[in-house]
Amino acid sequence: MSETTTPTTGSTGGALADPAERRRLMSTVTPEPGAAKADPILKVDKITRQFGGITAVDVEHLEVQRGVITALIGPNGAGKTTFFNLITGFDKPTSAGHGAHWEFDGRALNRTSASSVARSGMVRTFQLTKSLSRMTVMENMMLGAQGQAGESLAKALFRPFWAGEEKQIEEKALELLARFKLHEKRADFAGSLSGGQRKLLEMARALMSDPKMIMLDEPMAGVNPALTQSLLGHIQSLRDEGMTVLFVEHDMHVVRHISDWVVVMAEGRVVAEGAADTVMSNPAVIDAYLGAHHDTDLGDDDLLDDATMERLEQEVAAEETEREEGKA
Amino acid sequence: MDDIQNILGAMMRVAIDPQTAAVAIAVIGLNIHFGYTGLLNIGQSAFMLLGAYGFAISITQGVPMFFAILIGLALALVFALVLGVPTLKLRGDYLAIVTISAAEIIRYVGRSVGIGWLTDLTKGAQGIPGSQYRAPFTNLSFFGDGSTTLLPFNYTDVAGGSVVVRLIGWVVVIALIVLLVRIARGKVALTGAARTGAMVGAVVVAALLALFLVPVTQRNTGANGLWFTAVAWTVVGLSVLLLLGLTRSPWGRALRGVREDEDAMRSLGKNVFAIKMQALVIGGLFGALGGMMYVLPATVQPDSMGRTLTFFCYTALLLGGAATIWGPVLGSLIFYVGRAFVIAVSQTYLQDGSSPIGFMSNQQTQQFAFIVVGVALMLLVIFRPQGILGDKRELRFNV
């Protein structure tokens, strides 16, 4: 795997490629909502968003540890995407001016537009991919680079100002495309890619800006299992290079597999935090989200042997009798 | 045969007309707005009118021509800023509504007679006659007096102007045009300098051959003469080069990014508002330049630069192909020459008195031309929605 992105290491970066080190670091954090982290890259305070009478997001305090993968989970309508939109500047909190405050890498983002949030090093992707359809994959990638001289109108007409830079950006884009297996597609229109390839493109495009933190909104949704594996690999390698990852995901296996810390949202609030393996047994989480059979993979054939089927049937029957008794 | 030669002559006169060139320049501006950035500007005629007013009024007030041009451009710049600041942060439809109403406001202010000093400047609906501001431009001419035939060496000099020579000539011209369109659409395996060279070569040869077959005699310097034609088409050439330079740069890439998805561009750290504003201003400046060129051989008459002209500009753009380099020029040429063709044909064969089956008055032939052009455009949009030079692949994706 080629080193394409300069590791933007914080005080603890780099060393966090070691799983034991990460476990040790995260074990020092109290598993409760709004827990303080050793070295937070993102701090959010009192951020609320109301749509009419509905409070979509009401987060009192949240910190995201630098250099690890944090998963944001929660049932549909928990406010995860709205929360993403708020901190990346795509939406404004209702509490703006009334105590809403969030800072990224020591810099307050309260009044910052979406584009300057991205320029400060926090880049996001979208749940419904936003590929620039009528542009080639390569052009999509090249747009991701920051601070291009050729994008200023004054210099655009004079090639010498930006020709060298353009070449560097192109090389970097080619490396990233090779890493994300989109190399063959570089001359195709982005609109002709499949859904999964668009997810890859969007992630690669976000990486063109050398972000400090990448925010992925359901990166695995609608992606086939093989591609999911490779996406997971990519996300982990980003972390190993020192990047901070915050992602929204529904698939519990994925979350358990790669995340170092899990934040659970329900009805707009953060209801629990903790390491992946412990947070799932938190009663608040089970109530809000997972349900009693969250461990059962309904698509797994091994589980569908007679014994399991029988046990499940018995359970269903028991529940039914209970309900009937309740009625009576 | 004489009839046909007359019809071709009428078409050729429109094809080299400075006003056709002027519209092509304005369409290049509209291409930056609509084709590249996706800004739905339905008021390009206002940019043209402002450029024309700024230029003409300045000269009638005794400002040197160079500064008069700058004043015309400055007016368009201010207009773009005034339109852009409130609307570019909103969804695209708002710009459309604001531009079309602003264009009407400019036109109505120009033709109003309520305010004395304003009417003294704009001369109301009558407009400013060209003779009052044309002189500094005409005086620049180094073409001298007299008149010139384009081309001096033409079909009449070969085999006594025989029909066979002319037919062969036209077959070659058509073949060249087909070749040109194929190269432009990437169907011929040529790249880089070879492609550009082949295209320029084919254009030059086809244009010269067309002039060889349909020679046009023009006065050297007078209004609408050779000097006007030469300057207008030179400005078109320079505008195309400018468009080429701008759209092939990272700035041009950012424009197309904004057209495709503004939120995606924001998430990549681009200042979408600034990019859209720059596009609106640059396209507006092209519009103002086109407006100045448009009124030089004519008069600054507000009603001749109203909604109709904007829609002609859109028609020419869609005809040639939006977001293409040569689309605006090709589209303007085909639109105006096509209209001239229908007018000339109906005047020759369908007008009262000029032919045994004539049933239309002269005015009706003009209106008939619009009907035919309209139907032709509907057919074009149905069967070739991407325009002549557009890339059909782009239409497969709904944006």
UniProtKB/TrEMBL annotation, chain A:
Biased-composition ranges, Low complexity, are 1-10
GO terms under cellular component: plasma membrane
What Gene Ontology molecular function terms does this protein carry?
ATP binding; ATP hydrolysis activity
- Annotated segments matching region Disordered: 1-22, 309-328
Question: What InterPro entries does UniProt report for this protein, alphabetically?
Answer: AAA+_ATPase (IPR003593), ABC_AA/LPS_Transport (IPR051120), ABC_transporter-like_ATP-bd (IPR003439), ABC_transporter-like_CS (IPR017871), BCA_ABC_TP_C (IPR032823), P-loop_NTPase (IPR027417)
What Pfam families does this protein's entry cite? ABC_tran, BCA_ABC_TP_C
Q: Which UniProt keywords apply?
A: ATP-binding, Nucleotide-binding, Transport
Q: Which segments show compositional bias classed as Acidic residues?
A: 316-328
* PANTHER family attached to this UniProt entry: CONSERVED COMPONENT OF ABC TRANSPORTER FOR NATURAL AMINO ACIDS, CONSERVED COMPONENT OF ABC TRANSPORTER FOR NATURAL AMINO ACIDS-RELATED
The name under which this protein is listed is ATP-binding cassette domain-containing protein
Report the source organism: Nocardioides flavescens
Automatic annotation (TrEMBL), chain B:
Keyword set includes Ribosomal protein: no
Q: Which InterPro entries does this entry report, sorted A to Z? A: ABC_transp_permease, LivM-like
Molecular function in Gene Ontology:
branched-chain amino acid transmembrane transporter activity
> Gene Ontology cellular component?
plasma membrane
Where mainly located?
membrane
Q: How does it sit in the membrane?
A: Multi-pass membrane protein
Query: Which stretch is the leader sequence?
Result: none
Q: Keyword annotations for this protein?
A: Cell membrane, Membrane, Transmembrane, Transmembrane helix
Q: Where in the cell is it found?
A: Cell membrane
A Pfam family this chain is assigned to: BPD_transp_2
Q: Tell me where the transmembrane regions lie.
A: 20-36, 66-85, 163-184, 196-214, 226-246, 273-296, 365-383
Q: Could you read off the lineage of the organism from its UniProt record? A: Bacteria, Bacillati, Actinomycetota, Actinomycetes, Propionibacteriales
Protein name, per record? Branched-chain amino acid ABC transporter permease
